[in-house]
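ugh ok fine here u go
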Amino acid sequence: MTQNKITAELYEFIVKVVEDKVREIRVTREEFDKLAAAINRLAEAQAGTEERLNKLTEAQQRTEQRLNQLAERVEQLAEAQQRTEQRLNQLAATVEKLAEAVDGLRQVVGKLSETVGFGLEDIARVVLPGWLYRHLGVELEELERRFVIVDGREIEVNLYGEGLKRGKRSCSRW
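structure:
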């Protein structure tokens, strides 16, 4: 048998090649570890992003639900407004009819007032001078309807008379 012997030079060369390969493997392992760490960080970041996205989706769903509720409420308010406007129109028509009735009633009451008022004034015009003379000692010349200015306003006096009370000039209004 022959023995194979490695020369020192060959041995050194082999050791050097192996050391270089081990160094390359070591560098590759370190790079792999760095890459793995980076991937882990990216995975964690992705998980955080997904969590935030889920929260945003939930928030959007709540917002859409609130908007739907708000839209429904606005629709209800619009319907209520329409009913209110209809009632106001009906009320306006009723008020207009009542105003017409009040105008008619005012005319009737005015005519009645004139009729009754003139009758009472006519009676008072005849009776009052004697009563004033007997009870107050006032002698009236004549009672008449007159408009007088009081505090800058024109006032209607139904029975106005001037006369003498115990010999002095006097004015009476009723």
